Amino acid sequence: xxxxxxxxxxxxxxxxxxxxxxxxxxxxxxxxxxxxxxxxxxxxxxxxxxxxxxxxxxxxxxxxxxxxxxxxxxxxxxxxxxxxxxxxxxxxxxxxxxxxxxxxxxxxxxxxxxxxxxxxxxxxxxxxxxxxxxxxxx
Length: 138
Known about the structure:
This protein has helices at about 25, 30-45, 85-100; strands at about 1-5, 10-15, 55-60, 75-80. It is an alpha+beta fold. It has a four-stranded mixed β-sheet. The mean pLDDT is about 85.
């Protein structure tokens, strides 16, 4: 979104979550990098000062628990840090991925997948295939 009176931009990414984002989700640098990269590339493509671009996750909780003691809000906002250092780290992460995944001609490199056993395995594209020993059963 563009705010003409202040000549600033705001990128909002709407996410749904069962019960919202807690400290662990907010600290996940890969989640942060998604919006930070949107900011980085918007600034580069349209020659905008990155300081004029704000980013925000708009998190919609799908499940609310009844409470007589306090009101539980369905909406949560999270604004990850997105200064020069974070944008540089996000850019380096993308470049590192590209360097490790593709050769100079843009073809996939034939590399062995190193499993990272964690709660993300269920979303991993290597799940239950011979490329990953973390979940492959045979």
